[in-house]
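Lesson 9: reading folded outputs for more than one chain in a single document. The general rule is that every protein is listed as its sequence immediately followed by its structure tokens, and records are never interleaved. Here is the first one.
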Amino acid sequence: MIRYDWEIYKPHRDLAMNKVSNQKLYDGTLQALHNLGGSATIREIHDEVVASLGLTEEEIALPHGPRPNSPTDIKYRLGWVRTWLKRYGLLENSSRGIWSLTAEGRGKTEVDRKEVDRVVSDQIKQEKESEAKSDDSIDDTEARFGIEESFSDESWREQLLTVLTAMDTSAFERLCQRLLRESGFTQVEVTGRSGDGGIDGVGVLRLAGFLSIRVLFQCKRYKGSIGAGIIRDFRGAMVGRSDKGLIVSTGNFTPAAQREATRDGAPEIDLVDGEQLIDKLKELSLGVETEEVIVERVTVDPDFFHNI
């Protein structure tokens, strides 16, 4: 796992930000989607962009801020870029997290960063002015921070990640056990013990009612990046016991770890990082409740009282 002291690491992050300008991220995101056929997952876009920029593993793993659960800097900035390009009309995203080029976006592989920033900044300014002029009965501060902030995507995801990383090791293993069961695995057992090569449990996945696959899994309650060494060690522990492995983590996996997990000639190991884990917990409603929030809007009609 890679850990950083904020005071030591911050200059390295600033250097990396200077190397990768926002202009490069705008153009890199558009080009990545063109290369990937017009649509892609967030991870596919991320991997395509960092590969095209030739970033080192250390630069990719640099966190955005001092908090232990901060996303990597490149992941944070790419998320911001996707949002701005969506507002600009070049990207759109589905409820399943797939990003794609719009009709206008299919005709562009690069943009003028300053133009995008100007247009989107004007949009945001107009939205704020419109909110200020609205005759809402809900206090503006409450509406913006009591409702929007409480239910914002980043707010609940960050809260959930904090809860997950604070869990006791055995509790996190039980959570992974429950997650696998809810996902269709049977005979799921937590067997983690010292000297077992990092294997925390085993489960059986039945496909199409015919094929049964024995899967060994490992639970990594990490706050940073998992490297290729952990993948190799886990694979070594799998030898003679199963040809299929799964690592579930609250952290993320370095590009080297991802390559090692799918290396030719070796048993493949599936990787579930913190973002995927959070999405799955939400999908299965495990510790996460999703509800539609309807805000009541009340308007007084003075004419009614005058003319009664």
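And here is the second record, again sequence then tokens.
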Amino acid sequence: MFFNVAASKAAVIVKALAITLLCATVLLYSAECADGAVDGLTFCLNVLVPSLFPFMAIASFIVNSSIAQTIGKPFSKITRAVFGLNDSFAPVILLSMIGGYPVGAQAVASLYKNNLASRAECEKAALFAVCAGPGFLVNFVGISLYNSKTIGLILLFSQMLSVILIGILIRFAYRRKSGNTFDRAVKFKTMPLSNAIVQSAFDSSKGMLMICSFVVLFSAFTGIINSFLSDSDTKDFILIFLEVCSAVNEVSADKPIELIAFAAGFGGLCVHFQIYSALGKVKVSKLLFFCTRIIQGTVTALLTHFGLIMFTDKQQVFSTAAVQSADFFGGTVISGVVLLGISICFLYTIKNFKQN
């Protein structure tokens, strides 16, 4: 009892000190912070909004008009056999692949809220129904950054396949009893066509505002990081850990596309926070979710590597984005730490599944 009280007080003190340090840093580096925020705004207006907003509106319309539910019905038996989830999850998994990061989590939370799936099923789905989506990977990364739709499609299908592979892994490794398995078909709220168009514009605007807000916020701190960090590899590593949009924009200048694929699969803490919020009452271990994202990022990077070999002239691909080689982190202390971290995450994930 005494230990718990002491630990709680210590956590409050640490949080207070961290917030104080953060405020002091912003004040000391106010100019760099402002410059970073301006760069983030420019990046949002010139790149993110034109490439993401139209596709987000289309994806939202597919949801609101129940098209996804119609498309998902033929895959219901596959969902049960491959992922061990009831038929209701077929459109959810489809939506997670075409709608972007938080859409899958929102759909999973909707199933649980409406008593259409058990808690165990929702926990399983929440671990792997996470995907960047076509708007981000094809329009933004492929066309805007690399001027190549082929690269965007390779990244997209690599991440989709990684979602499927991670789902299969979880299906066989997750030993917890699922409890009641619901067989009723999911019923999403639908609306007339005109209302769906208006709601889709509203939803995509709201989502775009949230994404741009995070980008501007993390870009402001990136400006501070750039002022006292000279090593580009370390800065890229921190960006990938924090926020995927800014990270992809920076890393694409001189790093391998495989690293872009890892960043998209991992998502960054910014995306993780959005997903935790969207899941609502569906509680998933944050450490387990974090480890699963690292594994998914690694699988996405490997699949992207083979996809580039099969469908592109790799030398030409790298020259397009001014990428020098695929030896990022190769043969360094950082590479050893990254490999060790991935191995630990994999072992922890398997251990956690077996204990459940």
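What the second record shows: Residues 193-228 form the longest helix (36 residues).
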